[in-house]
Structure prediction request, 479 residues.
Amino acid sequence: MTNFKVFFLFVLFSFSALLHAQSVESYLSYLPKGSDISILVQSVGSNPKTLAKYQSNQFKQPASTLKIVTALAAELELGSDFRFETRMLTNGSISNKQLNGDLIIQLSGDPTFDRVRLKSMLSSLRQQGMEKIVGNIILDTAVFASHDNAPGWSWDNLTACYNAPPSAAIVDDNCFFASITPGKVGSKAAVTVSSNYPVAVTSNIKTIAGNSKDLNDKYCELDVSHSAKNRYHLSGCIAANAEKTPLKFAVIDSVEYFSSILKNELKQQKITYTGNLTERNSRVNAKLTLLNATQSAPLSELLTVMLKKSNNLYADTIFRTLGAHYYNISGTWRNGGDAVKQILQKKAGINLENSVIVDGSGLSRLNLVSADKLMEILQYIALHDSQLGLIDKLPIAGVDGTLQYRKSLSQAPFKDIIRAKTGYIQGSYNLAGFIQKADGGYTAFVQLLSGYQVDTKSEPKNSAIMRFESEFYKNFVNK
Prediction:
């Protein structure tokens, strides 16, 4: 057979397959004008069949669907049994109830580390006979380097808890709670913060009438600013008829926050020190003695939380850890992105070189990935599910995670058969995952929607995309 005939048959076969693919265009009318969507639906297998395809090669912001990429790279590089480990070491020795030398706390960026575990570690030191440290306390943060906020993160969201810094020093999710209680119209609202949090919060929030027609009131919005040593200032307005409003803020200076909590816990354990409490962020090759250590749950459990709850802190500490582990240097955003690309290329045969991967969570608006590339990730995950076990870690429609209450998919015929990662940043509604078929197999799908802006106030802003999803994905249920 001549090369021309082979080429002709290939083109004919491809064209025939597209003729039998589900049309996407007929469903675009559900979306607001100006919306831009990429869709790719395929059967799962070594020779996948394309069931629907629309602009799938376009680069778009993946938002939290990027966590699927992070999860696969982490499984391939770190393994299911990997654990973050926080260690207490010394360059001295204990005698006569005192440590003659420095106490070095080697931090690992463990996103699950909390006060309970810190207290347990310090209690262990007390049980070893340590009542006094004749030396410094050093927080070793060398596992990560450079900024704790990734390029492309929105500056006005940095104080939100979902933007908590994925630094080496993490305790209690690097977040704290506050609340605002409105007063009488014209008076200041009350802001309360538990004394357990080593932060300073001031406020001049004004209480306004709930039905005020004054333009100054209409455009007087709650705002927060921050300064050194975790000082926060709340300003703006709150309606008099509003209920007590709970707030959750990100810790801006994580080392300062960790240090303050550590000092308090040392005091509770009645352990004193003669030197300074300092940070060391460069690697030191010195012979040290291990005093005690604590570990996180295994990576397999962390990935379940990361995917089902779309936990950004978990995703980004894992991402930076990939850079540190792969290159054996301090993890940064840049080497984390390079590591992900190298790992997937070498271990999964997936080339992401033209994609832009800035962080592991998808918070950065600089990230750019196509539906085609996300589909390659999904296909690999499905073909290696017995080893990876990632499909069951995805949110299940109508059951758990970020798909539990998604109106388009939480009811029949989608409930319990769709497993997918959601992705949302303003203007984007994304999905990437699997539809389980009647025979137990899967259909993989990717949806990347950008430029989403409704032009009506008569219904919730997400009603249009919910209609699109509920109608379009019916085509692939039980087929």
